[in-house]
Amino acid sequence: MKEQIEQILAELGDLQTKTMKDVEDARVRFLGKKGEITKLFEEFRTVAPEMKKEFGKKLNELKQQAAARIEELKANAEQAAMDAAPKEDLTMPGEPYQLGSRHPVSIVRKEIVDIFRKFGYDVAEGPEIEDDYHVFEALNFAPNHPARDMQDTFFVSAGHPNPLLLRTHTSSVQVRTMEKQSLPIRVVCPGRVFRNEAISARAHCIFHQIEGLYVDENVTFADLKQAILLFAREMFGPETKIRMRPSYFPFTEPSAEVDVSCNICKGKGCNICKGTGWLEILGCGMVDPNVLEASGIDSKKYSGFAFGMGVERIAMLKWQVNDLRHYFENDLRFLKEFSTCVEV
Ligand code: PHE
Q1: I need a surface site. Which of 10, 90, 215, 250 has the fewest CB within 10 A?
Q2: 92 φ/ψ sector (left φ>0, alpha ψ -120 to 50, else beta)
Q3: pLDDT tens digits for range 131-177
Q4: What pLDDT score was predicted for residue 344?
Q5: Is the distance from the beta carbon of residue 124 to the nearest atom of ligand 1 less than 6 Å?
Q6: Predicted local confidence at residue 148, as pLDDT
Q7: Strands 278-287, 252-261: parallel, antiparallel or unpaired by DSSP?
Q8: pLDDT tens profile 191-245
């Protein structure tokens, strides 16, 4: 037994293990249930009583040494595994997380809609592919009106009595609202519109509009003027003035175009307002009785006003962007300029 103990000790000393599996195999071989050392403990029962003390001590020492050696090999194998793993410096700063931001057109659209919501307007939406009836006919456009020309409007299906087309304004949503909603009506209609225009710094074939409609008993031009003035002050600051110039739209009578005092030069004249001190922001007017009647509203009892503005135009004035095309090119350098505009 003495030789066996010594032999095991020598073997333990020489033991070479690489992986954790090697270490576990060695542990089973020596200290497992059927391991060599365990077997020696079984044989110990047959040792003569006078030798028991000496061998008992030796065996216990062997077991302890074997356990210590296995622990040592285990620690080495763990270290080797860690050394082999790719080095990661956990103190390095993390990967920067790129946050997106709202598009400037969305920021301004929301700002405009929120102002009108505060005034008690609902929001209405409608289809971008519309029919001639809702874009033109119900809005009092004469059959030969130039807007109905291919040159100005993108038709989806032509040669039909009520052809499909891409809406040229969101007034079509106002028609749909008048058709189905009970009175009084107070809505704003934000949305994309399409016009067959050559793309330039001042015009684009796609842009965004917000149009508004208010129909009730006794709605007057004074109400329209007050609504636009309050909007302009919310949007451009409390000092803002407005002026109205006579205009023409088939669906409103009388019609006006509205300018706001230039908030950059405070009316003195600068290159943004082209020296005039005024900036044009929207078109508006009293809803033509023909338009009310076309949607089944009694024009003797009810009257209303409507207005419409381009979101990009308002955004250009707000941020003094001089080229409309920036809003459609999605150049990140441009979009990032607006990433700090607080918007929730
Ligand atoms: N629909 C008009 C346009 O697209 C704007 C407008 C709306 C004018 C309502 C008057 C009243 O230009």
Answers
A1: 90
A2: beta
A3: 999 999 999 998 888 878 777 899 998 778 889 999 999 999 999 99
A4: 47
A5: no
A6: 80
A7: antiparallel
A8: 999 999 899 888 899 999 999 999 999 999 999 999 999 999 999 999 999 999 9
- Give the residue, by CA position, lying nearest to ligand 1 atom 5: 308
**CA nearest ligand 1 atom 9, residue:** 307
Q: Give me 233's structure tokens.
A: 């002050």
Compute the distance between CA of residue 82 and CA of residue 20 in angstroms, rounded to an integer.
12
CATH architecture for the domain at 104-338: 2-Layer Sandwich (3.30)
pLDDT at 259: 95
Could you tell me which residues come within 8 angstroms of residue 323 by beta carbon, excluding any fewer than 6 positions away?
Answer: 201
For the CA of 212, the closest atom of ligand 1 is: 9
The kind and range of the H/E element at 208 are strand 206-217
Say which range, 34-38, 146-150, 279-283, has the weakest mean pLDDT.
146-150
Atom of ligand 1 nearest to the CA of 170: 1
The alpha carbon dihedral of 116, 117, 122, 127 has a sign of: positive
- Domain boundaries of the chain, sorted by first residue: 2-84, 104-338
Rounded Cα gap, residues 292 and 179, in angstroms: 9
Check if the beta carbon of residue 239 is closer than 8 Å to that of residue 226: no
